[in-house]
Amino acid sequence: MTHDARIAYFCGALSAAAYSGEHGAREAAAKLGFHRSRFIGQCPGAEVLVASDDDATIVAYRGTDPRSLVEHYRNTTTWWQPGPFGLRDRVHCGFGEWTALTWDAVRDAVLQARECDRAIYFTGHSRGGAQAVIAAATCKARLGIEPAGVYTFGAPRVGNREFAALFHYAVPNSFRYQNNNDVVPRVPPPFRYRHCGRHVFHFSRDGERWLKPHWWSVLWDRWAGRRRGLLAWGSDGLSDHVVRAYVTLLARHYAEEE
To answer: Which percentage of the chain shows pLDDT scores above 70?
Structure first.
């Protein structure tokens, strides 16, 4: 495992920036030290921020806008489509379609980064995390380029068992973050879909970072977090999903490792 808290923080911050539109996203990238950036936007929802410094290129997919019913429908559709490996792998049709809309431009950015000998990372929050996984798999399957890492935050399940197995083999440096009671990582249903991310980090209700925690520890932590949310007359299933919550926790743990 080659986990880098600094890269994780940048990935989270750029995933948050991808929600801001072209001007806001590029401005946020520059503040983080990524002075070469490009915003790819085929349509509302299919948007990608590609940000580079001298050493790395980070491809950050915008996540779901909860105000859009069309996006909500696509997120919950359970149709399959063939995966990028061309075997028995299948991916969620909605996630695959959104990824395909921007793939040509993303491919060009990846090839340019390769020519400049920069490390390539894929990232995204919410549905953007699912797109980052499919794009990283496509990068390896079609271009023969193994990403330096994939970091997803509050991402849903992406594809079937075969896709998850092939992804973990093709992209070993893949990290999936989930925050306490974040509801999005629990969909689509587990009897058909599998999570992608060889290494799982769970943020507890107190903001502690657990690597591959036991299921019982996660269950107890979620119950305690839900109880706290109910006592505060709120729902932590939604508040735990907010991208800024992830960025705050990533910044905290990056600072602790400095």
So the answer is: 87
Peptide bond into 82 cis (omega under 30): no
Paired residues of 38 in beta bridges: 50
Residue 99 in contact with residue 131, Cβ under 8 Å? yes
| 93 CB burial (10 A radius; 0-12, 13-18, 19+) | middle
CA nearest neighbour of 51 among 64, 63, 61, 41:
61
Contact 139, 120 (CB under 8 A): yes
- Closest CA relative to residue 122, chosen from 43, 176, 193: 176
Q: Round the average pLDDT of the chain to a whole number and report it.
A: 88
Cβ atoms 102, 128 nearer than 8 A: no
DSSP string, the chain: ----HHHHHHHHHHHHHGGGHHHHHHHHHHHTT--EEEEEEEETTEEEEEEE-SSEEEEEE----TT-HHHHHHHH---EEE-TTSSS-EEEHHHHHHHHHHHHHHHHHHHHHHHTT-EEEEEEETHHHHHHHHHHHHHHHHH----SEEEEESPPP-B-HHHHHHHHHH--SEEEEEETT-SGGG-S-TTT-B---SEEEEE-TTS-EEES--HHHHHHHHHHHHHHHHHTTS-HHHHTT-HHHHHHHHHHHHHHH-
Task: Report which residue type is found at 211.
Answer: L
**Is the per-residue pLDDT at 123 higher than 70?**
yes
pTM (whole model) above 0.85: yes
Output the pLDDT for position 14. 98
